[in-house]
Amino acid sequence: MLEGAAIRVGTENQAKLGAVRAAFEGFAAPGAILELVPAGVASAVPEQPIGWEQIVSGARNRARAAFASGPCGLAVGIEDGLARLAEGPADARDPAEGFFNVGCAWITDGDRDGHGFSSGFAYPAGALQPAVRDQAPIGDLFDDHWSANRPPAADAPGIDAGAPSGRSGGNIGRLTGGRLDRAAYGSQAVVCALIRFLHTDLYD
């Protein structure tokens, strides 16, 4: 699948494209050139996905739309969102308690489908609460929260302080001081989605 066939990716976001490239390069033959083709397709879910169903649906919709957009061997969709991983106490006053950011990657070859997830991380309450309450984009909320509460010197090398975090090292890049940027974070989900294709003898 990695020799001579394009890989279509359901986004034009450079961080997500970097995630796909990083994941696939680990399995490509030495010297192989990966042809990634960005496809500006719709996720068909809210701009800020909330819950597992919206996260997975967004990734699946992007992958399938990318596959339909032109010739390719594989197509990939990535969608991040907020999912509840832990239930808070019944009397909790914070409706956002227990929500973590999780990324899903969906891969299809037109016959097989595989999907996987990234690790999860928690946002500061000042950004998380309005995102869950109003389904507002967490990227914008986090950028505002970060700018209001952290000095410019807190930005790590390689993280563009002037760019929206979703288009540079990502929120995870800022929160980890550049030790885990958005591309590396997204690649976790892509590698996990690839398992279905690496072991067709086990899964078919």
Description of the structure:
- This protein is an alpha/beta fold.
- The protein has a domain of 140 residues: Maf protein, CATH 3.90.950.
- Helices cover 38% and strands 16% of the residues.
- The protein has 7 helices and 5 strands.
- Strands 2-1-3-4-5 form a 5-stranded mixed beta sheet.
- The longest helix has 17 residues.
- The two termini are 17 Å apart.
Topology:
Blueprint: E1 7-9, H1 14-25, E2 36-38, H2 52-68, E3 74-84, E4 99-108, E5 113-117, H3 125-134, H4 138-149, H5 170-175, H6 182-198, H7 200-203
Parallel strand pairs: 1-2, 1-3
Antiparallel strand pairs: 3-4, 4-5
Helix pairs in contact: 1-6, 3-4
Main attributes?
globular; single chain; alpha/beta; five-stranded mixed beta sheet; 7 helices; Maf protein; 204 residues
| SS field, number of helical segments | 7
Which percent band covers the strand fraction?
15-25%
User: Biggest sheet, in brief?
Assistant: 5 strands, mixed
Give me the strand/helix succession.
Answer: EHEHEEEHHHHH
CATH class annotation of one domain? Alpha Beta
Based on helices, strands and strand pairing, what is the structural class?
alpha/beta
Span between termini: 17 Å
**Unreliable runs, pLDDT <50, ≥5 residues?**
none
Task: Write down the oligomeric state.
Answer: single chain
CATH topology name of one domain: Maf protein
Computed CA radius of gyration, to the nearest angstrom = 17 Å
Query: What is the 3D form?
Result: globular
Q: What's this, in brief?
A:
The chain has 204 residues and is α/β, with parallel strands linked by helices. 38% of the residues lie in helices and 16% in strands. The chain has a domain at 7-122 and 180-203: Maf protein.
